[in-house]
Amino acid sequence: MKILYATSEATPFCKTGGLADVAGSLPPALAAAGAETAVILPLYQKVKEKFGGEMEFVCFDYVDLAWRHAYCGLFRMERAGVTWYFLDNEQYFLRPDLYGYMDDGERFGFFSRAVVRMLPHLSFWPEVIHCNDWQTALIPIYLKDDGVRDDRYRRIRTVLSVHNIEYQGRYGLETLGDLFGLDHGWADDGTILMDGDVNLLKGAILCADAVNAVSPTYAEELKYAYYAHGMESIMRRCSYKLSGVLNGIDTVRYDPETDPLLVAHYHAGNVSNKAQNKAQLQKLLGLQEVPDVPIIGIVSRLVTHKGLDLICEVLHDMMELPVQVAVLGKGDYKYEEFFRWATRQYPGRLSARLDYSEELATMIYSGADLFLMPSRSEPCGLSQMIAMRYGTVPIVRETGGLKDTVHPYEAWRDSGNGFTFASYHSGDMLYVIRQAVSLYRDNPEAFRRLQERGMEADFSWNRSAKQYLAIYASITGEKAQIPEEQPARTETQLPAPNAEPVQPEKAPEKPAEMQTPPKTPAKKPAATKQKKKGTAGKKTPRKTAKPSDKKKA
Ligand code: GLC
Q1: pTM for the full model?
Q2: Which residues of the chain have pLDDT under 70?
Q3: Which residue of 84, 200, 390, 490 lies most exposed, with the fewest beta carbons within 10 A?
């Protein structure tokens, strides 16, 4: 099976959110399971600076997007059993950040068009293109357009993964032809139209052969208005092709037995060394260095939908319990201010770092005893799985992937791996926090078993990779070749940096002029020329991205 995974971010290259973790780990797991896998993403400035030296230039071509005719370079590298392709256009991608620009619609319209345009230059013709979120939502639509005349495009099947339905790619109707180069029929029949706007995600949900949400519960939730941000009826209409596949985590990177960021290693059979990480965390954050007061860890974007309003409502009640609180994250000003104030209010007992740091996050995952994640909605959530892997017991609201991964503690039969509450209510959250703190203090044996069950759960990508292979098989009509368990190759198991790159079996045939990069790449695509003539200067009458499109931080 030949899979092309199209994404706007992937670790270790570039990251703003959980999509990057998924795109960095799932393709290697698919490859390990036997699928020929390539990933395609934009060549952002940061990626070029950090990984440019490891890439090989393949060719360049020109991409037509409405009246634009823009340069597109193709670079590649081999890593973790996967071919990583990078699309280069400096005008669009040589910028400090991944998202948040006025022309994000145009940038990702270009990217999606370019993915389809550059297919003949890849080392294989994909059977499936797996798209992710609104940034790659135009791919299934462009494929349908191109497939009208060309059977090769018609044969490609598409999967759309919805990581967060809040971000839909909404633009004014005038962008349809002028920006995205689509015929008005796409809007006339409503395929790409919602509430009078072009809605890229809606178009992809309707056009993709399979749609999946990143957890089974989220797939169900998307059929209801509370979670679907206006898309509930579309999701219900498409429920015949909708599934929920739970994300995994990189179990090699996140391993308390080997993680170099830990001060002492431990495993499910013996967690006694976790105490040393706790002491180190207390020292780092200026918390009182007492071993038997439970630390509640919070690693989150500080925004309302992560449940921050619930925490603010009952923080004083929480602090009446014998606990310490460690917070890491940045976000809305009001929450940052709140935690600044709370740090002053509870010196030595609450400490907030309004920042993001991989090192400190890992210290909290391993040094804390409890991990709080009371999200209003959480498509999957990775932190609760990472926390469990480090023996830190999660306290979560029962939504999306939190519900699928955290099972409530039941004393009478000594089961579960965390604490959960159902209604989005601060009193209910406080109730389970009290339960968790009592168990920690009064029944350390039972708490220990809770930790152990969390640490032993299988959150690896192998499980999810198999489910994706089954989806690909169902839409291509091929038999899923699902091998026996074998760990995905990850960062830590990469071939030596100077190892020979894997050569594709059949090199794509390229016209001679495509073998070397042009002398003046990207900066002078035809669009710039037109600008001089005054055509590109004509303001594309499109709306600025709505706030909901400004992608997660
Ligand atoms: C988004 C979701 C998060 C999910 C991640 C990866 O960031 O908000 O819940 O884990 O995507 O799918």
Answers
A1: 0.86
A2: 480-553
A3: 490
